[in-house]
């Protein structure tokens, strides 16, 4: 399917979504978010796709929500429409593993969108920020919450109160970015990483993802219990039998997603 503001492609088992509003720094207008949701639905429903990469291309990830679209809205408009809620969280609710590949600016809603993915790979040009305060707003799609969980209170407060951006080294040191990739290699490395994930058992990968995500939703004791039960449930799968017997027999496992 073709879209106005995004481009979707596949590389074997990996679905790639590229944000594509170059004239507006990939600003995340409502139509773009709608198209992003549809593309995620498509990749979720496509059984040949086992992991997803979300990128903005090699110049910019996204400069945030579309300020021109937002500027004249009033409280009642955004409140009644529950602005931001519909659509945006679709990335966070994607069950298949999804990697953000960030080049250039990931600002405001762009940073928030990257943080909705399971992890962030970034190249040397990447810059992360929550500059909403500089335009008289605050983050609205998780910037105060997911960023605080990722990098702690002090840096999050400074970024949200001053609009200061982090370069990629600081973002990696702080735990926002899992790895820095040399410029030019980002997409291929993100796809390679997604292929590695795609080679695992999909239900087991989803269980792992759900378990990690519990860490952000619950107490340690409850999270550990969730993890333990999820771990136990892997023993109900053939892929656990296959994985462990392949290890013992010193051969590669052939997972069947069952
Ligand atoms: C709409 C945007 C935009 C945005 C850039 N543009 N960011 N349009 N919404 N978020 C447009 C510019 O208006 C301009 O259009 C064109 O893209 C190029 O941008 P420039 O500013 O001229 O480029 P440059 O000087 O290179 O600066 C790049 C930049 C800057 C540092 C990324 O554009 C910038 O600071 N952007 C806004 C960042 C921001 O405040 N983001 C938070 C948004 S609020 P024209 O027509 O002039 O060529 C937000 C709230 C999230 O995200 C809440 C939940 C979603």
Structure at a glance:
This protein has 258 residues and is an alpha/beta fold. It has helices at 30-45, 67-70, 75-80, 85-88, 109-116, 146-151, 153-162, 168-174, 186-198, 202-214, 220-234, 238-248, and strands at residues 6-11, 14-19, 51-55, 98-102, 105-107, 119-123, 127-129, 166-167, 179-181.
Q: Note the main sheet.
A: 6 strands, mixed
What small molecules does this complex bind? hexanoyl-coenzyme A
Counting DSSP H or I runs of 4 or more residues, the number of helices is 12
Task: Detail the poorly predicted runs.
Answer: none
Mean pLDDT: 97
Structural class: alpha/beta
Order of H and E elements:
EEHEHHHEEHEEHHEHEHHHH
Fraction of residues in helices? 40-55%
Order of strands in the sheet with most strands: 1-2-3-4-6-9
Distance between the termini: 30 Å
Principal-axes geometry comes out as globular
Q: Radius of gyration from the CA trace?
A: 19 Å
Counting copies of identical and different chains, the oligomeric state is: single chain
- Strands, total number: 9
Beta percentage is: 5-15%
Describe the structure.
With 258 residues, the protein is an alpha/beta fold. 44% of the residues lie in helices and 15% in strands. Strands 1-2-3-4-6-9 form a six-stranded mixed beta sheet, with helices on both faces. The protein has a three-stranded mixed beta sheet with strand order 5-7-8. It is globular and about 60 Å long. It starts with 5 loop residues before the first strand and ends in a 10-residue tail after the last helix. The mean pLDDT is 97.
């Amino acid at each position: 399917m073709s879209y106005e503001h995004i481009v979707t492609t596949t590389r074997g088992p990996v679905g790639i979504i590229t944000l594509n509003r170059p004239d507006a720094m990939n600003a995340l207008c409502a139509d773009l978010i709608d198209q992003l949701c549809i593309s995620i639905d498509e990749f979720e429903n496509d059984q040949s796709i086992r992991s997803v990469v979300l990128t903005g291309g090699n110049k910019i990830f996204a400069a945030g929500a579309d300020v021109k679209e937002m500027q004249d809205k009033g409280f009642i408009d955004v409140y009644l429409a529950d602005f931001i809620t519909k659509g945006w969280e679709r990335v966070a609710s994607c069950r298949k593993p999804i990697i953000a590949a960030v080049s250039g600016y990931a600002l405001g809603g762009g940073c928030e969108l990257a943080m909705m993915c399971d992890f962030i790979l970034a190249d040397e040009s990447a810059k992360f920020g929550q500059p909403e305060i500089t335009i008289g707003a605050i983050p609205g799609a998780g910037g105060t919450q997911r960023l605080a969980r990722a990098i702690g209170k002090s840096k999050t407060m400074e970024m949200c109160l001053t609009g200061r951006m982090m370069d990629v080294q600081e973002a990696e040191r702080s735990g926002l970015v899992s790895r820095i990739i040399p410029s030019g290699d980002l997409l291929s490395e993100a796809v390679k990483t997604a292929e590695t994930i795609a080679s695992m058992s999909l239900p087991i990968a989803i269980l792992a993802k759900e378990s990690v995500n519990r860490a952000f939703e619950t107490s340690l004791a409850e999270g550990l219990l969730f993890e333990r039960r999820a771990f136990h449930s892997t023993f109900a799968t053939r892929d656990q039998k296959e994985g462990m017997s392949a290890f013992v027999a010193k051969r590669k496992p052939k997972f069947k997603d069952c």
